[in-house]
Write a structure and sequence with these properties.
It is a single chain. The protein is of the alpha+beta class. It has one domain. The two termini are 21 Å apart. The structure holds zinc ion. This is YgjP-like metallopeptidase domain-containing protein. It holds the Pfam family YgjP-like.
Length: 170
């Protein structure tokens, strides 16, 4: 069952509903209706500006980001939908945190709401490392529709997976 893989941890009824959408070939329609807007954040420079704007609005006091970019090698599900690293670098006698946000390249083509959701997720990690209650509260604060969008992202990934499989079939 495809939905079980993408929606691990969700209620069985939701998983069954998603599987039904998939089997009936209605996933694409559902996503197009839910997430109609594309975005124009095509490269790393545009992504950097986009992230800085959201950070300035919601997390002004968090440490500056040294790198923001799309990453073609990033597997979205494995990395809990994105990645955030804090690398410690020795700089003179001080230890300095290097903070980066990498967003999987598939988000270049994704609907605008999903890009925003993943950036909010990664920004929230500047404050909270774990996916705990405080983390999700911060996500919700930056994007009130966060929980629904994370669900929609899983459906979107499931849809891409199904599409790839259909194209690979003879
Ligand atoms: Zn995370």
């Amino acid at each position: 069952m495809l939905a079980a893989r993408y929606l691990a941890g969700y209620a069985p009824e939701l998983i069954a509903q998603a599987e039904r959408l998939h089997l009936e070939g209605r996933l694409a329609d559902y996503l197009a209706r839910r997430l109609p807007e594309p975005h124009g954040v095509r490269d790393d420079a545009a992504l950097f500006a986009y992230v800085q704007e959201l950070k300035a609005r919601h997390l002004r006091n968090a440490s500056p980001l040294q790198h923001v970019g799309y990453d073609a090698k990033l597997r979205v599900l494995q990395h809990a939908l994105g990645t955030h690293t804090r690398r410690t670098q020795v700089q003179g006698s001080r230890l300095k945190m290097r903070r980066e946000i990498r967003v999987a390249s598939l988000f270049k083509q994704a609907p605008a709401a999903l890009l925003r959701m993943i950036v909010v997720h990664e920004l929230a990690h500047l404050r909270e490392l774990e996916h705990n209650k405080a983390f999700y509260q911060l996500c919700q604060h930056m994007e009130p529709d966060y929980a629904q969008l994370e669900f929609d992202l899983r459906l979107y990934l499931m849809h891409l997976d199904a599409q790839r499989k259909a194209e690979a079939a003879p």
